[in-house]
Amino acid sequence: xxxxxxxxxxxxxxxxxxxxxxxxxxxxxxxxxxxxxxxxxxxxxxxxxxxxxxxxxxxxxxxxxxxxxxxxxxxxxxxxxxxxxxxxxxxxxxxxxxxxxxxxxxxxxxxxxxxxxxxxxxxxxxxxxxxxx
Length: 133
Description:
Elements: E1 18-21, E2 24-28, H1 40-59, E3 64-74, E4 77-91, H2 99-125
Antiparallel strand pairs: 1-2, 2-3, 3-4
């Protein structure tokens, strides 16, 4: 089970991708250690410049933290708008193509499908005309 769609290199807060799995449609709504070694002063200077550029991009609003929220529907009917989620994920981080967003969504997919199956089972078990929440 994987998402065949990918996020664009630049994403916005409401961008989504979808996939089909088990009959369900599922959709999403530190510079590192420098340390000693050869050329450590040049590596430190480069890491410092990268960190400063990253913070400048943050101040300009070019990257942000977001949440990945998977929703699930069956045959066009939304079963749950919050089947699984993960928050505090960098979006549009400098030098990133946002592929990590899709990877994280794929990791959430099994939980989203389990939630969708649970909702579907509750709906099927409910007496006719009775809503389940």
